[in-house]
Amino acid sequence: MNKSRPSQQKRQRERQRQERRTEKQARRQEAAAQKANQPARADGYDPDLEGIKPGPQPLEDWQKVDAE
User: Fold this and answer.
1) How is 44-67 classified by DSSP, letter by letter?
2) Between residues 35 and 23, which one has the greater pLDDT?
3) CA-to-CA distance for 46 and 39, rounded, in angstroms?
4) Domain count, the chain
């Protein structure tokens, strides 16, 4: 006579799913707020791309093979 058990498990799963949904929504709102508070980049300048030229990049010292 364990017929009530699956519905209790289902309620518990639904509750967990709802909690995850609210946590995700909170994270999304937090990320949106942080993004809105960051200063905009001036003139499309991206600090991650500083020093990189278009085209093939030169090999780093550790990538070079000694031709002996």
Assistant:
1) G--GGGTTPPSSPPPPPGGG----
2) 23
3) 13
4) 1
State the residue range of the domain holding 31: 7-35
Integer angstrom CA distances of residue 33 from 10, 12, 20, 30, 44: 35, 32, 20, 5, 21
- The amino acid sitting at 63 is Q
pLDDT of 41 reads 65
Half-sphere exposure of 40 (CA within 13 A, CB side): 3
Q: Hey, is 65 helix, strand or coil?
A: coil
What integer pLDDT is reported at residue 2 of this predicted model? Answer: 59
| Residues across the chain | 68
Say if 12 falls within a structural domain. yes
Question: pTM value?
Answer: 0.50
Per the prediction, the chain carries an average pLDDT of 84
